[in-house]
Amino acid sequence: MSGHEHRGRTFTYRLGSSQNSTKKLSPSSPPKSSMAVELRSNLSWTMLRKKKSIASIHYSFRLDLFLLLFLLSIPRSISELNTMQGFCAVASDSDCSSSFTKILIKGGTVVNAHHKEVADVYIEDGIIVSVRPNIKVGDEVKIVDATGKYVMPGGIDPHTHLEMEFMGTVMIDDFFTGQAAALAGGTTMHIDFIIPVNGSLSAGFDSYIKKAKNAVMDYGFHMAITKWDEEVAKDMELMVKENGINSFKFFMAYKGALMVNDELLMQGLVKCKSLGALAMVHAENGDAIAEGQKRMIDLGITGPEGHSLSRPPVLEGEATARAIRLASFVNTPLYVVHVMSIDAMEEIAVARKAGQRVIGEPVVSGLVLDESWLWDPDFTTAAKYVMSPPIRKAEHGKALQAALTTGTLQGKVEVTISGGRVVWENNKLNIMPGSGRYIRMPPYGYLFDGIDKADAAYLASLHAPVHRTKAAA
């Protein structure tokens, strides 16, 4: 990598103890930190203390994942961050208001997808301009000592819900508090999901742009589709061509709220293909879940455990299989969000082995938690672990981990550098509301390579239509 120029933002990690921990994660921990290894823009650099060499990784079920996940042991909620010593909501004249426009990360082991070497990383005005050994700089440059640490492309979290309005509730973290926690955890970009306003994509987009006015880090958007008509179809084209949205999510669950039926899903898949946009699905069978909910109520099971019991893994697996087969019929790529069960994972693995373009997304909760929390006698504690698809039995998480990696790294974030400024150092945040940027993303051209050729081969194989003559009288 030495001698090459790199563009992006920078943040750094230092690893702490690598001991295995059985302590359950607090639901008030900062948002998950993750790496989108296939998102090709706005890459960052991350610094990790070297603990041991990274061995070759083999997957029992190989998933083509957007996320290369590092689990960070940071048990602080955003409320704790706000009250901790030295928190800076706005840059000031205090020692946490670093305004360096030139930064050198010195002496770390720089790692990318296929190579590693000891080198320095020089950043100027937020741009990584040089990666090579022994870079010489003047006194005006801030130097971050990375000796004994890994420096690697860093965190894009592609699945967040900030200030989301849902079934009479609003997510507690907004675009300031949620992003502040993410920065403290080493994530420097995220992609949030826009929920349409009364089915309108344009109204939903305008609403989320306003919500993000206090953003403190780079962000992008996915768009949910909750109904179908000509206006929605036109709006999808507008979102891709003018607003920089290249992915659309379809909920196969939440009957009576966000759920779409198979007809709408089919139309959406066809439209995504025509736009070069990625179709995403929340894969659970909403009709069966509604029946499961009635069953739980009849049995008097109305606590958080009933949520999990009403939507078992088989319903996630069924919906995943159905979405995969519909995407195969349309011949368009598919992204399955928050894969939580062996059932869903196996469907993805089988499709990928057959050559279908399917991407599975794990999330921290599915990898490291188990459903025992839902049976906690304290309702408030149990309720904190309700999500959809639900957290499963421990064997599901272990299988998902095996599909993702052979081990986990646990660490403590030491320094976060974003936009050419140190925004997290010495347990102090230095962030400015409104300093975040909306990142417009082009269509996923590389995911659609060869699609037209495959379509042509399919049409040629039909040997149809057959031109028949009328039978003689």
TrEMBL record:
Query: Which Pfam families does the record match to this protein?
Result: Amidohydro_1
Quote the InterPro entries the UniProt record gives: Amidohydro-rel, Hydantoinase/dihydroPyrase, Metal-dep_hydrolase_composite, Metal_Hydrolase, Metallo-dep_Hydrolases_sf
Low complexity compositional bias, start-end:
21-34
Picking any one GO biological process from the record gives:
pyrimidine nucleobase catabolic process
Start and end residues of each Amidohydrolase-related domain:
150-294
Task: Name the cofactor(s) required for activity, per the record.
Answer: Zn(2+)
| Keyword Translocase listed | no
Q: Give all N6-carboxylysine modified positions.
A: K249
Reactions catalysed, semicolon-separated, are: 5,6-dihydrouracil + H2O = 3-(carbamoylamino)propanoate + H(+)
GO terms assigned for molecular function: dihydropyrimidinase activity; metal ion binding
Its keywords, alphabetically, are: Hydrolase, Metal-binding
Instruction: Provide the family line.
Output: Belongs to the metallo-dependent hydrolases superfamily. Hydantoinase/dihydropyrimidinase family.
Which named protein is this?
Answer: dihydropyrimidinase
Q: Which organism is it from?
A: Elaeis guineensis var. tenera
Q: Which gene encodes it?
A: LOC105032045
